[in-house]
Fold:
Amino acid sequence: MIHGKIKFTVLSKLTGFQNLLLEQTRRAGHQSLLLKAILIVQFAVVFCVSAQQPMGEVDLSQPLTLEQCIQIGLEKSTSMRNARLNLAIQELRVKTSRADYFPRIFSNGNYDFSDRIDFGFEPENYNLGLGAQYTIWDNGQREGGFAQAKESLSATVSRNEGIKQSLILQITEAYYDVLQFQALVEVSEQNLARAQENTQRTKDFVEAGSLIPADVATAELQEGNNRLALLQNQNSLQVAKARLPRLLGLDPGVLITVTEDESFQLYQQRGTIERIEIPVEEAIQTALDNRPEFRETEAQLRSQEWSLTLSKLQRWPRLNADVDYNVNLDDYLRERENFSDFRSWSAGVSLNFTLFDGGILGNRVKELTMQLEQARENASDLERSVALDVRQSYLNLKRSEESVDISKTQVVNAQLSLEVIQGRFDVDKAILLELLDAQTSYAQALTNEVNTFYDYKIAQTRLQDAMGVLQ
Structure:
């Protein structure tokens, strides 16, 4: 997870080797196919390692960090389990395609029973045989099928990387939701305590004769509003705590606690946040180099091209070699001598091709051609979609950064205003409504501060996801 400036940390979770490759790619105008190929291999290795290495036991009774939550999710979530299964399925399909290069050996046997005993027929007949077939020549169909299977495997690897990034984004958002509502509950508790104190003080003033009973009703109204706000935030916190384990592949009823948010504490102490310092065009270019959707789309296009090629090759003949070896067990078991007299073998070649199929092959070629054209059109639109996604995420983050600054200023101003009006109220220079209004403004400012800060954190994570560097 990235907590520092995106200028130098958008790639901080990548390896130093990947950072070097990305920097070199940027300097070269992103034209180096070799570097892109190395990146693809690197991402595939990272995914395979994370998918295969078992996760150590995590004590759920202890507060979890964001990294621990991500680790659990990558190991136990349904999406990642299915992703690993899809990868295994594609690997089996590659092996199956490779097996087409080998001959096929099969056995056959039959048992016949008949009531005819004339003309040399026996009532029972046994036969046993072995056969083998090997494709000598198929005009490249096996090579095409094997290449298509490998492209499908490559697409699956890239798709799984996208699934992984999507899951990390969801877990990060859910993690920040828990922290956000925890902070809101604390703010609501402080507001309620302040409102309860005001209510009691108002009652004391009424008894002293300086306020009227209607002022008590006003104070109790604010106290009731603060109590409702606390209940709402507590409920939202419970929902967020149930959603997080669900994303981790655990039962929503599992009680999970998370560690304190040090970044929010540092923000409250310093009053500043880390800002992005890269231009939007560089962010878009990073996304074009790293988003797994591009690698998946390229592999899918190549797979569809092979599908079209294989359909065209169906018109060409296949040359097969066939070998058969048979034994007439019925005669041998009856006479039990001269085994060689009851066995036979044959070998030959066959050439098979379609003369007429009513246009099935032709229509299939046309269909795949149009599907390939659709896929290419979608691929050309993907770059525009990704660029828009990055630009929107970038602008949302910039807005969130400004909102955090504004909310901090509002907290400072609301606190100063409350202190002034509180002092005036204590010496009977302000009425109760002024004090309640100042407290309401201060409470709202504190709530806005929490919401804007975690909106900023989520916006930062979404930009990293849009750039394809969320690891």
About this structure: The domain at 6-102+138-317+353-467 is CATH 1.20.1600.10 (Outer membrane efflux proteins (OEP)).
